[in-house]
Amino acid sequence: MLDMGPSKQAATWFSSLSRALETGDAAAATNLFVEDCYWRDLLTFTWNIRTMEGRAAIRDMLEATLATTKPTAWQLSGEASSDEGIVEAWFTFETSSAWGRGIMRLQDGRCRTLFTAMSELKGFEERKGPARPLGVRHKADPDRETWSEARARETRNLGAIEQPYCLVIGGGQGGIMLGARLRQLGVPALIIEKNAQAGDSWRNRYRSLVLHDPVWYDHLPYIPFPENWPVFTPKDKMGDWLEMYTRVMELNYWPSTRCVSASYDEAEKIWTVEVDRAGESITLKPRHIVFATGAYGPPRQIELPGATAFQGEILHSSQYFSGEKFRGRRVAVIGAASSGHDVAVDLWESGAEVTMIQRSPTTVVKSDTLMEVGFEIFSEKALARGITTEKADMIVASTPFAVLPQSQRALYDVIKARDAAFYDRLRGAGFAIDFGDDETGLLMKAYRTGSGYYIDVGASDLIIDGEIGIRSGVEIKSLTPTGILFDDGTELAADAIISCTGYQSMNETVAAIVSREVADKVGPCWGIGSGVKGDPGPWQGELRNMWKPTAQEALWFHGGNLALSRFYSKFVALQIKARMEGIATPVYGAPG
């Protein structure tokens, strides 16, 4: 087999797999994998987001799911490719209830990684492309209802006469993208947002905020950014885009609405949700609720001994909007990750005297470097090679979390060598740098703890040049009336303190709205059980609780950056749509 071309190797292996699966022979299918193998599935076999690691895990999954899944119609898509002995091929297939697609990678004639993902539900495909709605009845009708009249009726009735099947709590980027997916699938959904209008979650942030990720990575579903859109999007421009998107995608969106409480009736399978809509108390009765309140939960406040004695102002970064009021004043920024750097730069630009207090080492990567070597498949060059954003999403998702460290370590070996002089200057300024417990860099920190990293878009030069001061390697002992006392006996004079100390887990939002009991039953979000500080084991193999069934029936979490929200919103919507239509969704594996 190894003397065959890549496409022939893929076709031969693929034929054996399809024959084994269609005959229900889990053992034969399992023998087609190498010992150190992975199968990552998004809904098609497991109705879960789950990675099976090793032959035994794959066999157990197949034995539990083949009878109901009934996979058939396996077909390769295009030509296979080969790189350093790994043959890669794309394919499509179908199950008893869905259409699927995937990517396989062969090593020495057997499968090293297999990725399967649901693309559409049979009989409930999205009405788009050739199946798009006509938009008009070509017939005279005295009872005609125009588009605007129908939208007004829907807006008026939903939440009053008619109840949403799904309530999305949080109308930022994640909630908006999920709302669009649900609408395209015909799921009656309502998005509630505490801010006054869509996009305010971006507009209300500090004035200089700009996305650190490039435009090719940040598209929303259905409506990509136009070709003249800037590579890095300013916050207010993003806010305007999100506001436009809610209107164009015809989302049912309630601004100025706060979720007060929610409780689930296990017998009736329905939520009772109390909301405050611009001062009016309304009760909603959805079947499902999705917490889309951002990547994380409430602000994480750290204890600062002596805070009551401090004569200046103390803010969390979530409360910070502009450095203008701090012009000419001495400001301490606690925290040296993304928000800490951004706030420090904004303060410096506003004329403040800024000192950053670094409590632990930070992974720093220059934006230009990351663009060239880290975002290679999300770029104009990638598009020219036929790698669309959708295809790039699939490539990223097809890599199991367990094998990511190896490739990320190799990437950061390149980055460290490429920017060695930059790192030497940064260390020379007193800034502590690391690349994670295992030298795997920014992406693994993002998945494991969501903290401790910064994509450099200018702050590092200010630190190197001494324009932003650094206090690193010393602990805060207490605040004094005029500043901060450190455990080495030194004191930093400060007129104000901005705590850029991050956010708690999303399940803490559940504790405030549903109950402490439900929040604890569900458990924290994010992290993969890597065992590093902030991401305790045991090993999960997938991100905790995100985009999949949780320990609380009919409660979901959706969030992340724009790319994660774009990709995984589809799978949250498919799961909810399947339940609405009464499709059997036997979940393989424990929730969470």
TrEMBL record:
* Keyword Oxidoreductase set for record: yes
Instruction: Name the residues that span the membrane.
Output: none
Tell me, what is one Gene Ontology molecular-function annotation carried by this entry?
flavin adenine dinucleotide binding
Which InterPro entries would you find in this protein's record?
Auxin_biosynth/cation_transpt, FAD/NAD-bd_sf, NTF2-like_dom_sf
So which domain of life are we looking at? Bacteria
Keywords from the UniProt entry: Oxidoreductase
UniProt key word Oxidoreductase: yes
Q: Which PANTHER family match?
A: FLAVIN-BINDING MONOOXYGENASE-LIKE PROTEIN (AFU_ORTHOLOGUE AFUA_4G09220)
Can you say what this protein is called? FAD-dependent oxidoreductase
- The species this protein was found in: Mesorhizobium delmotii
